[in-house]
Amino acid sequence: xxxxxxxxxxxxxxxxxxxxxxxxxxxxxxxxxxxxxxxxxxxxxxxxxxxxxxxxxxxxxxxxxxxxxxxxxxxxxxxxxxxxxxxxxxxxxxxxxxxxxxxxxxxxxxxxxxxxxxxxxxxxxxxxxxxxxxxxxxxxxxxxxxxxxxxxxxxxxxxxxxxxx
Amino acid sequence: xxxxxxxxxxxxxxxxxxxxxxxxxxxxxxxxxxxxxxxxxxxxxxxxxxxxxxxxxxxxxxxxxxxxxxxxxxxxxxxxxxxxxxxxxxxxxxxxxxxxxxxxxxxxxxxxxxxxxxxxxxxxxxxxxxxxxxxxxxxxxxxxxxxxxxxxxxxxxxxxxxxxx
Lengths: 165, 165
Known about the structure:
By secondary structure, chain A is an alpha/beta fold. The first copy, chain A, has helices at residues 41-59, 76-94, 104-112, 119-129, 139-154; strands at residues 2-7, 12-20, 25-34, 63-67, 99-102. Chain A contains five helices and five strands.
């Protein structure tokens, strides 16, 4: 089972691809999609959606996972992020991938053992879990790997997967 | 110049197609995209994005327009709407259409003359402006036509069009 985790952001969107049998996980790829700082949101959404499609084509995941942002604060950045999340869900659905959605605290609790871990603790635990020697490109990439691992662990119980046609 | 206006919503998304020379406007089409009440958001986004693509293929607009929702309240419905808005912007950008974005009050002020008009006043004025005899299918459809007309009027000054590749 191959899982694509996505950490949505309007400036940097992280992605992580994990192969997992539910208990043992290995890292296939981790990286980020950067958009141009001066570009309007619409153009950033276009870049992000197209890159996500390429990543699906390249790594051929079976399922995808994103963080649930319904608890996000009403800041301008949170609204931008939600636009990106809409595009990510659309692209995954078009690719026929079921998408699991997890609260940020659940992702951290799954990887580190408690829901208030910081990004460095998450990255450290992921390196141990995945027997990954190197660093992740950025915290956005490790967060994306974390949500993929979270989905690998919880997907047998995940009744909230958005069934796709 | 043919303009596609979109009124984003997770349950009902309105669309309106207007032909305009900037002063005289005529209605080409108005309708709604309804999603299934029980479907998960991801599946709704898939339906909406695909239908918007079909509408672009059918009516071949030159440009598109949506309401700016950055002032939306932080309710669950506003966040769902923002996901839909992300998909709409992505689909328009992929189709190569520049997208104008307008605050709701600007749309109303352009169509009715003041920014606090209700939906019935907007629909009434649109029928007069467009010499349209019939009713609009729903207020979502008339709101979509309104944002298209707003773009027709303001696009010469709209420096904020998201340039698309």
